[in-house]
Write a structure and sequence with these properties.
By secondary structure, the chain is an alpha/beta fold. A three-stranded parallel beta sheet has the order 1-2-3. The termini are close together.
């Protein structure tokens, strides 16, 4: 259902709001280079990278405002390794997930 979430994330990115997406359980499979990643995920990551590059042109501090994380334990439980990840996806542990949730001002759970 990432296709439904992607437009909401894009809206936040265009408002210069930093967004972190954490993929859990079976959703981590789509971040492996050994599987077909959802087009919406690829497009969203490319969009965020384009916004970063626009910052280089406009003189605004270039930063990527989108972080895509996956739970390393969920990835490994499905037979994949972190070496299999597509570019710009960061594996995290459960304790790092807790830190992200604690740091976040708003949390949206999407199923």
């Amino acid at each position: 259902q990432f296709e439904q979430l992607a437009p909401l994330v894009k809206t936040q990115l265009t408002k210069d709001i930093k967004v972190s997406v954490v993929l859990l359980h079976d959703a981590v499979v789509g971040t492996s280079s050994k599987t077909d990643s959802p087009n919406a995920l690829k497009e969203l990551m490319d969009y965020a990278f384009q916004l970063k590059n626009m910052g280089n042109v406009t003189g605004i501090e270039p930063t990527v405002k989108l972080n895509v994380h996956i739970l390393k334990e969920d990835l490994e439980a499905r037979g994949y390794t972190t070496e299999d990840l597509i570019p710009r996806v960061e594996p995290i542990s459960y304790s790092q997930l807790v830190d992200i949730l604690d740091f976040s001002k708003k949390i949206v759970s999407w199923m």
